[in-house]
Amino acid sequence: MLLLTGGEAMAQGVKPAPADPIVVNGGRQVGETQPLRHFDAEELRAMGITSIKDMMQRLGAQLKGADGANPVYAINGRRPLDDEEVQSLPFDAIQSFDLLPQEAASGIGYPPNQPVMNFTTKAKFQGFEAMANGQTSTDGGGGTVEGRFAMTRLRGKKRLTLSATLSRQSELRQDRRSIRPDPSLPYGRIGNVTGAGGGEIDPQLSALAGSPVTIAAVPLDPDARQTLAAYLPGANQPLVTDPGAYRSLQPRQRTMKVAGFFSQPISERTTAAISLSIERQRSWSLQGLGTASLLVPAGNGSSPFTGDIWLNRYLDEVPALTQNGSIWTLHAGLGLIGGFSGWNWSLRLNHDRKRSQTDSDLGFDTTGIQDAILLGGDAFSPFSTGQIGAAIRDRSRSIITTNDAQLILNGQLLTLPAGPVAVTTTFNAQRSSSDSQSRAFPDANTVLWRNQGGSSLAATIPIASAADNVLPFLGRLSVDLSGGVNAVRRYGPLYTAHASLVWTPVKRVQLLATLRRAETAPILDQLGAPRIATPNMPFVDLVSGESLFVTSLYGGNPDLSPERRRTLTLTANIQPLRTDAFRASLIYEDAKIHDQSATLSVLTPAIAAAFPDRFLRDAAGQLTTVDLRPVNLHRERQRTVKATLSFAGPIGPKPEKPPEGQPPSMTYLYASLTPALRLEDRLSLSPGTAPLDLLDGDNIVASGGRPRWDVQGDMGLYRNGIGMFVQSVWHSGSRARSMIDTADLRFASLGTTALTIYADMERLMPKTGWAKKLMIDASIRNIANARPAVRDRLGDTPISQQPAYLDPLGRVVSLRLFKRF
């Protein structure tokens, strides 16, 4: 939503862009670009911004591209080595920030369709920063604490940054929330008996009850269990046990990360940079009680029934099932950045390695119990831990290694009457490998490797320029073109192409038309992730109308095909007032997608017909196992229109110049409203199948069909060291249609609001030592504690769609302290 800067600032004091243009080629003149917005360090401090994340949140829509694209980063006019170089940059080290239009992107090696966030650092800086953050839910449980410490030293082009981050997330168990247990499960803590093959348990019991009895609760009195009449009160009324104390809605998690960045000029025109990081994440969760279905033969002394029956019960004599995992992530990057004869070049070498391991309890060995019952043992007495075998544990692991190299060359190829032609050429090569193993699924063990290499060329070609008197009646007109090929082992050459027409007929009006085509291979993790089985997961079966708990299979799918996508985007941007602070945009997007990779998290008749081998049922027809590994979906057509209104700038009288080292005493307002309307979303699951209308009752995910409307509104107000930021998001309702009452689901609209209040303590308490360079902010996420609401045609909420399953935390409050030294 970016326009070229023009006109005068508001009389109230909106700061215009600086008169001097920003050189975006790291010191060599490729082209000069006037910034759209300029903020100095004091203005950023006045808005309470302490990180890139804060900036993206509080200036959101103002930082988006003309067609809604997210911005890219630059430091001192050059492309950074990686995200770590940008994310670890302390805001105290920033002299100023400039938002550059998308045509500046090609000058530093990016595609020419994204705006650039350029950070100019101070020539000399040394500082330390510490951050502590804690949050918890107001319903109780699920809290998280995080701490970060970093130091940075800048001396011209030399930079050293070291940081360490530690976070601890608490487990949230199901019994902390209002969740009712599933009455359809045959298991109970004492047990329920069922008939063989799902039929009646015993004709005599059915005669006593006056109707066929297919399930009955085991009597609480041990002495009465050998009497048939004792089962009459529990006939067709099974014992329901709440397993909430043995199941985690949110795992316990520990994360530690250490990172470093170092850059050093090695010649007059060349700078070398090194980036290193290592991260470890550990998690642990409960997956419910183990279960047993045991055959009790006719004639067993503990059974009063005339025929064989099944005893179904939870194994509470042994610990609950658990799942724990660990992930090690290593990144090492080396970069060389330089220039010659007005051209810039950069070479980037990266090594990434990810090692993950997951240990999952799938159940317990009940062979010993079953043998004892078959030999005449008491089936209804508590089992000893010696009778119950060891937990059946699956261990899955994977190691993914990636080595890549990228060479970027960009500069001014020639000068046309309307301006210079900026060209960016990129060459890339990559080798990656994946080794995944699973103890429970040895046939799914895979070793994959992939080589790929390619190149791309991007150019920005000016056609008309009123400022240069070249076709002045057209205003300003340019074309962005790019194309590339990437040869990927097994998939062959994959092509990308981009064409964009950018037209500014008059000041403050910009029109864009963009066509993109891209062929993308699946990432290696989608192909080779290890097979993991997780029991007792909630799932919606819209074929039978049941909401139940199943064993879910996760992992990679080595048979995935590349995705092909074609996107047409039409954009109109307007600055209706004589200020850069207020902007409006309208974006229309038409996307056609072939063979996209997706996970099907719900079962419908259409999905069952297209992917029948993904869903397993038992002899009674009840769903027991679902395969949630990614699949290719044949074709999807999406059409969307989105509008954005935004304002960002000072309001009120222009403040007087503050004392040295103090931020200006100004009132800064940021507000935006972005409604989005989905006009069409049709999906064909496989060739030859009728398309699904995801906006009118068809769905492929458990959260229902796609909402037709999405609306987001943001507002921030900052003055004299105190500020507030409010963000609201609303999604319209949707539906999952079915002829079965319990499978015809309506998903209510949902709106949530978050509020953050921050204070610059040094400004509020300037004479207090501990308040120096201290920032405090408090926030409430989901103020109304709103959760998704799902109802079937009968007005009931399916078991697996209960609000606390869909949003376990609800309202969350947090407090953050940020201190600079």
Given the helix and strand composition, which structural class is it?
A: mainly beta
Low-confidence stretches: 1-31
Sum up the overall morphology in one term.
elongated
Helix content: under 10%
Let me know the average pLDDT.
89
Number of domains: 1
Number of helices: 9
According to CATH, the fold-level topology is Maltoporin, Chain A
Work out the radius of gyration: 31 Å
DSSP E strands, number: 42
In terms of quaternary structure, what is this?
Answer: single chain
Major β-sheet annotation: 22 strands, antiparallel, barrel
Q: CATH-wise, what's the superfamily?
A: TonB-dependent receptor, beta-barrel domain
How far apart the termini lie comes to 37 Å
Mind telling me the CATH class?
Answer: Mainly Beta
